[in-house]
Amino acid sequence: MKQILNIAYYEMMHILKERVLFLMIFFVPLLYASLFGLVYVSGILQHVPLGIVDLDHSKESRDVVSAFENTPDFKVIPEVTTYAALEKGMKTGLIRAGVVIPEDYSQKLSQHQLTQILTIYDGSNLIYGFNTRKYFQQVLNTFSADHTAAYLSGLGMTKHEITNVMDTVSYSMEIWYNPTLSYATFIYMGLALMIFQQIGLLGIGLTATREKERNTWIQFLSAAVSPWKIFLGKALPYYIANFFNYGLVMWVAVRFVNVKIEGSVALIVLLGLLFDIIVVSAGFVVSVYVPNSLLVTRYLMLISVPIFVSSGYSWPSTHIPKIINELVRLMPYTWMAEGFRLLTVKNLGFSYLVDKIIVLIVMAAISLFFALTFSKRRKPPAQTGLAVNGSISYPDKSCLRL
Amino acid sequence: MLKQCRAVLERELFYMWRDKSLRHILLIGPLLGLLLFAGVYSYQRIGNIPTGIVDLDNSSASRQVVEELKNSQNLQVAAYFDSFAQLKESIKRGEVIVGVVIPDNFGKNVALHRQTRVAVVIDGMNMAYATNASSAILTVTRTFGAQVGIQTLIAQGIQANQAQEAYQSIAFPEEAWFNPTLNYAYFTVLGFALNVWQQCLTLAACMTIIGENGLRSWLQIKTSGISSAVLFFCKSLVHIAVFMLIVFPLYYLAFVVFKLPLACGWLNLLSFTLIFIIALHSLGTMMSSISRNAVDASRYGMIIALPAFVISGYTWPLEAMPQWVQHAAWFLPQTWFFQGLNYLTFKNPGWGFMSHYYLALGLMAVLFYSVAALRLMVENFLPKGGLM
User: What CATH superfamily classification does B49-168 receive?
Assistant: First the structure.
């Protein structure tokens, strides 16, 4: 036990002395959590800039304009009054949606002929596209109902009769788990867990390479200390720091970004502890077998986007080909992110998460096994090729100091 | 001078090739990313959203509602349940995303023109599903509501044409511009692939200066008489050319093989890519100049490159971010690039609009290279306990 604590103390000293590493472990997670928090803090896309081309300029067409003016979902841009301006505005991003009311709109209404209101939205950004389409339908459903009510009133029906006709079949639509359809609740914790994974891997990923670069790793390898003690001692500070960051990121999410985090605290802690074990032990194994810190940094930095995109967290896994789904199931992040979301957004109990927890336990056991039993036989530095790829060195200004 | 330049160019190219990890990252990383993302988004649209029905009435009217749902473009009736509890459990397990509950006596109430209510529940956990499902349900409710309303009016003695006019005198056709089929692959694949590409480039660009002055050979280079300006200019030239070469197969796959939309011409796209590469390289070079070693340079570069895509507003729109975050985002070359890329590939708004993007990226390049040069000069004149 004392040996483990000694190694942990020595590692902690390294973290405290190495300014960049210290900042990366204790500051960057907060920085990224805040940054992404600021990006998604509004959560809901509102005030979509809308251009209305009213070619009719009648009382009836002004009713249409009012319907769009009176909703917070759209912000009518008054500069857009012609179809050409609408086309230009859509191209330059001045507006993201448009409504065109034809010049014979009121005339056709009065002649009891079919008329139409054209709605246009920008499909180049589908977050705009899908939300705008939904907002259009909401506004037009209301407008259409008002129009029908006015028409029936014109036929001499009473308010009560109109209500009876129109509400013969009504619909109540409820959105469960994320009732405001907040993007913050949807995406933020997925990104935060990716930050947790990346910073966790990059922190411990340098623990053995740093020793190799200082020629001190040999001391660990030749000392009468078992590999499992070296791992536990080295991993302990990172394990604690990571778990602290896990809590910190969640606090930022709930306190400042209004992300919905519900569910059993015990299960949240359990998921965090398991994921932390996987990250720390996988990072340590990488550090032991990769020759230097530069390679660790280069490779680990690049895995975040592919893992996140293919994990099924944003684009549903039901719409991802089977082979990719099978591949990403080998990644702990996939299970952690899905389990965390089911727990915190859907507020599901243990029985719904049991498969995720079992997989994470198996992954933790496998990664721990490799970390605890790493080989103490040292691979000699490569004699050929560029030093950076095979040896323990990489460009460093300190090599020029006498 | 020219001979010197040629020697540096050849040497840099040789060094880039010999750096095996960097070579793999640059040659394989972006292409692998593109293929993976094209695979992930190969379904292209969110259709067939699994829908569960609880039909407590089992009448012809309730079956008509189910038919309407079946005919909806994006919904797929995947299961029938006997009770609301079963539906709730299925939504919890993620087996169905949309639930529709048709109440008891629905058909009878419709026939007697009494009020009745259909409950629709949508799982909001995944927004890609939820926004599509909401739109589909809103369309179905409007269509079905109109059908029932017309029938009710006719039953009450209103003439058929008047009843129809009350509900259907205004049509609301919709058009999605620039991406008419609302194809997710068009929107995301190139953006994500170029995000990986810009991260790979950043890793390479971060070696520009530290890859020289962090090695012992730096002393020999300094004593050889070659000026730092010539050396780093030639190095940068090679980097920029290599970065440009790497993007060709990526664009070929994206636009020719996968047929992603390209509204502007190839020349516009390539010239815009080139100016971004220069700006990104200048940023990497600046990071390289202020770093003690190559690991720190890579960390500094990637601290910016990793979140840059999210901040750029390519997915979650810039306009939805707080005002000052929007302003801050424009200080990153990635924001100009990803915003500009979206405009060029989907809309082609013309040179008058895009010239601001070129200018901003050009100015950034000048600024970042100047800081790097200044830093290098200061370091040369004010050595800190070293030999330099």
Answer: abc type-2 transporter like domain (3.40.1710.10)
